[in-house]
Design brief:
Blueprint lengths: L1 H9 L1 H7 L2 H18 L1 H4 L40 H37 L1 H15 L3 H15 L5 H31 L3 H8 L4 H37 L11 H9 L8 H28 L5
Helix pairs in contact: 1-2, 2-12, 3-5, 3-12, 5-6, 5-8, 5-10, 5-11, 5-12, 6-8, 7-8, 8-10, 9-10, 10-11, 10-12, 11-12
């Protein structure tokens, strides 16, 4: 493991990362956000969802540096007296979990179907590509909104895990298409190369050829696309939560926090919605910058 890390650090990708201040800054910001969200129970100064610790007298307090603010709540409180800073850490945990899980499922389904379509061709390729065309004809947020809404309607009293599962599935069904089309195009190029023809002549099974030979050579674009799609999935989840069909109220995400603060934006309590929005922008921007760097690092023509 250690030698693999050293090889990566001394390789072309590691050198590109070391010489890119933007990539290093984006990675630092992303790691800080991930660390604070994963270990929110230890890092957050308060537990904003522990009802026994809430004080309604502390509701809608401004940030600590403003008049009327309290040093106990650095970024202020919301309408229920919950610490905004702690709520951001706990909310980012839900957003990141949904984003990463939906991207992983999208990669699994999209890469698998793309390999089948590109390697076998024929009616399999035609059927899968027509399915992709149908999915692309609908706006992704509309499909996710429909599925998430139907799921919440069918299971109104569902537990948080089931509600988040419906949300992850709704984002996955709109995200796998790009991976399938990307892998299908790369597989069409790889299947006609000499090493694939040699494996076929020697009697290697098609599934083994796809898994051992074709798949490693088409994963470069997939990694870049997955990195960028994490930010897209997080924004999609925040949009669904803002519309009220995303994360359940008992496990609010950044989108839910923005929706709650939006009710108080014009009454002067700007911090309730501005700070969750800034957190969402920070996470999405850092992940997108990492995706841009990875695209340039894996493509020598762009260096």
């Amino acid at each position: 493991m250690r030698s693999a890390l050293f090889r990566f650090w001394d390789g072309d990708v590691g050198y590109s990362f070391r010489t890119s201040p933007v990539a290093m800054a984006a990675a630092a910001v992303a790691l800080i956000c991930i660390f604070c969200s994963v270990f929110a129970g230890f890092v957050a100064p308060h537990n904003p969802f522990d009802l026994t610790t809430l004080e309604l007298s502390d509701a809608r307090l401004p940030p600590a540096w403003s008049d009327g603010g309290s040093s106990k709540y650095l970024l202020g409180t919301d309408d229920q007296g919950r610490d905004i800073l702690s709520a951001l850490m706990y909310g980012a945990r839900v957003s990141l979990a949904v984003g990463f899980a939906s991207v992983v499922l999208s990669v699994v389904f999209g890469v698998g179907l793309g390999l089948l379509a590109g390697f076998y061709g024929g009616w399999i390729d035609s059927a899968l590509m027509r399915l992709c065309d149908v999915m692309l004809s609908f706006p992704a947020i509309l499909v996710a909104l429909l599925i998430a809404g139907v799921g919440r309607a069918l299971f109104p009293d569902a537990q948080d895990s089931l509600a988040l599962g419906v949300l992850i599935i709704s984002i996955t069904l709109t995200g796998w298409v790009q991976y399938a089309r990307t892998v299908r195009g790369s597989t069409l190029v790889e299947r006609s190369k000499e090493y694939v023809q040699a494996a076929r002549v020697t009697g290697v099974a098609p599934l083994r050829i796809m898994r051992r030979h074709v798949l490693p050579n088409v994963m470069g674009p997939v990694l870049v696309l997955a990195t960028i799609q994490v930010a897209t999935a997080i924004i999609t989840e925040a949009t669904l939560s803002f519309l009220g069909v995303g994360a359940p109220p008992t496990s609010p995400s950044l989108g839910t926090l923005i929706r709650i603060g939006n009710d108080y934006l014009f009454s002067g309590e700007w911090w309730i919605t501005v700070f969750p929005g800034a957190m969402l922008v920070t996470i999405s921007l850092s992940v997108n910058l990492l995706g841009d760097w990875l695209r340039d690092a894996l493509n020598p023509r762009l260096r």
